[in-house]
Design a protein that fits this description.
Elements (H helix, E strand, L loop, with lengths): L12 E6 L3 E6 L4 E6 L4 E6 L2 E6 L34 H7 L20 E3 L3 E5 L2 E10 L16 H8 L13 E7 L5 E7 L7 E3 L27
Antiparallel strand pairs: 1-2, 2-3, 4-5, 6-8, 7-8, 8-9, 9-10, 10-11
C-alpha cells in the first residue's frame, strides 16, 4: 500500500511485482486497476550498415556485480535495464529501485559521483514487521532523481532544473528534510516523510507482504472483453 504526495488523492493499493517485467495493481477490495508488461530499455547502436535499437539485458541475466563484505552491491553495473514496471509515474519506479538515494550526478561531467544526500546516522527499525534502515536526509545540489517531475524527495534545486521557465510550479517553502526508510532485504524505499515545510508528514508508505513467492502467469493476464461488455 502507499499514500500519494497529495493526501486528497491518496488511495491504498495492493501490487504484485514479478521481476523483471510484470506488475498487477488492485484496490484493497480487489478491483483491478492496471496490469503492466514492461519492455526492457533499448539503446540505439550505430554500425557500418546503419543503426538499430537493441534491448539492454535485465539484472540477474549477466555476471554478478562486485559485492561488499556485508553482501551489498559495491558498484552498480552499467548497461542493464533496471526499470521496474511503472504505475502512473517514475516515482513508483524510483520507490522500487531507489538508486537516486545513493550516488548523485557526476560533478563537472566526470569523476566519481558525489553523494546525493546528507544524512544523519542510520538506525535499524522495523517496518510492517520487516527489518529496515531509517535516516533523516537532506538533498545536496547533486541529487539526481529518476525523473525531475516526480522525485522521491522534492527539492528546490531539482525543481529549478525541471521548471526553471515556469516559476509558478516552484514552492514558496520546501521541506527541511526527509525521513526515509529502506527495506533491508529488498532495498525498496518503503517510506518517505517530509520533515518541516508546508506539508510535514506527507510522503509514501509501502508494506511488503511477501518476497519471492510464486506468482502464476494468469495473475498478469488482462481478461478478454466481449464485444458488448461494459468496461470496468
Amino acid at each position: 500500500m502507499r499514500r500519494g504526495r497529495d493526501e486528497r488523492r491518496a488511495e491504498p493499493l495492493r501490487a504484485w511485482l514479478r521481476r523483471p517485467d510484470l506488475l498487477r495493481i488492485e484496490t484493497l477490495d480487489a478491483e483491478r486497476r492496471q496490469i503492466v508488461r514492461e519492455p526492457p530499455t533499448k539503446i540505439g547502436v550505430l554500425t557500418l550498415d546503419g543503426g538499430d535499437a537493441r534491448p539492454l539485458p535485465w539484472p540477474g541475466t549477466t555476471e554478478q556485480p562486485p559485492l561488499r563484505p556485508d553482501g551489498l552491491v559495491a558498484e552498480r553495473p552499467w548497461g542493464l535495464s533496471y526499470d521496474d514496471p511503472m504505475f502512473e509515474d517514475y516515482r513508483w519506479v524510483a520507490m522500487l529501485d531507489p538508486v537516486e538515494l545513493a550516488d548523485g550526478r557526476y560533478p563537472d561531467g566526470g569523476g566519481p559521483a558525489w553523494p546525493s544526500l546528507a544524512l544523519d546516522a542510520v538506525t535499524e527499525v522495523e517496518h510492517a514487521g520487516r527489518p529496515a534502515w531509517e535516516a533523516v536526509v537532506r538533498t545536496t545540489p547533486l541529487y539526481a532523481p529518476r525523473c525531475g517531475c516526480c522525485p522521491l524527495l522534492r527539492s528546490r534545486e531539482v525543481d529549478l532544473l525541471e521548471y526553471g521557465d515556469y516559476p509558478e510550479n516552484l514552492l514558496a517553502v520546501y521541506p527541511e528534510a526527509y525521513r526515509v526508510r529502506l527495506d533491508v532485504g529488498t532495498g525498496v524505499c518503503v517510506s518517505t516523510e517530509e520533515v518541516g515545510g508546508p506539508t510535514p508528514g506527507q510522503g509514501h508508505d509501502l508494506r511488503i507482504e511477501a518476497v519471492d513467492e510464486p506468482m502464476a502467469d494468469d495473475l498478469f493476464v488482462e481478461p478478454r472483453r466481449g464485444l458488448f461488455r461494459r468496461r470496468q
